[in-house]
Amino acid sequence: MISIKVITTGDGSKSLFLPDLNETYHSKFGAKTESEHVFIQAGYKYISKAEMRILEIGFGTGLNVLLTYLAHLKDNKKVYFESLEKYPLPENIIREINDFSKVKQKEIFKQIHNTPWQKNVMLSKRFVLHKNQIDISDYEPERIFDLIYFDAFAPDKQPEMWIQSVFDNMYKSLDNNGILVTYSAKGSVRRTMQNAGFKVERLPGPPGKREMLRAVKS
After folding, report:
1. What is the distance between the alpha carbons of residues 166 and 11, in angstroms, rounded to a whole number?
2. What percent of the chain has pLDDT over 70?
3. Residue 161, Cα to own-chain centre: how many angstroms?
4. Cβ atoms of 86 and 177 closer than 8 Å
5. DSSP codes of every residue in 146-157
6. pLDDT digits (tens, 9 = 90+) for 35-67
7. Which tens digit of pLDDT belongs to each residue from 144-202?
8. pLDDT the model gives residue 1
9. What pLDDT is recorded for position 186?
């Protein structure tokens, strides 16, 4: 069984540390800050569509789902959110990281984790969540997406997630002008995306990271 430790990051939000991999789920400088910067600001808010289909690679702690849900409450977008995760977290870890200060956030976070896998669940009248427990190598999308949150572990920790066939599949999964955002700015990742057909731009990264990547299906 993989060892998991709950940690508090620089902005006060919780994340997880895997000692066996020497890897954290989020930036130690701030889990919420990183997710807001990379996935919400550079991804979700970059797209002006009133209806959005989002694919997330790496459900992890569910933080990106929560932040996207909260964002949709403000702008009233209609969202279909599909998230892939091969290894869901155990219930005791989920309870420990659910320490949000606002009661509503606690309730939604709990609901996000309690929803069944492989099933569409309406978190609100305008937000559908579909959690998919699957290995990315076996994933065949049944719809076209507007936005991909690519939130796998770092390339040196989980190299099989960052290979050419994966990004070829991501490219095919996106609508024209759809985008993929990721915290990684590694040169090999950028080149792999470009080989898949993406137009890739470097953006300022979150605290503790100089750059991140946004890839557009042109």
Report:
1. 32
2. 100
3. 13
4. no
5. EEEEE-PSPTTT
6. 999 999 999 999 999 999 999 999 999 999 999
7. 999 999 999 999 999 999 999 999 999 999 999 999 999 999 999 999 999 999 999 99
8. 53
9. 96
Which ranges in the chain belong to alpha helices (H)?
A: 31-35, 63-75, 91-97, 103-114, 164-173, 187-196
In a 10 Å sphere around its CB, with 0-12 CB exposed, 13-18 middle and 19+ buried, how is residue 151 labelled? buried
Question: What pLDDT is attached to residue 101?
Answer: 84
| Cα dist from 95 to 91, 92, 106, 114, 173, whole Å | 6, 5, 10, 11, 33
Compute CA distances 59 → 91, 159, 200, whole Å. Answer: 15, 18, 24
Helix (H, G, I), strand (E, B), or coil: what is residue 101? coil
Domains (ranges, CATH) in the chain?
27-217 (3.40.50.150)
Query: 58: closest CA among 36, 38, 82?
Result: 82
Residue 23: closest CA among 168, 142, 148, 184: 184
* Full strand arrangement of the beta sheet holding 78-84: 120-124, 127-132, 78-84, 51-57, 145-150, 174-182, 211-217, 198-204
- Structure tokens given for 173: 């999964």
Query: Which residue's structure tokens are 């066939």?
Result: 165
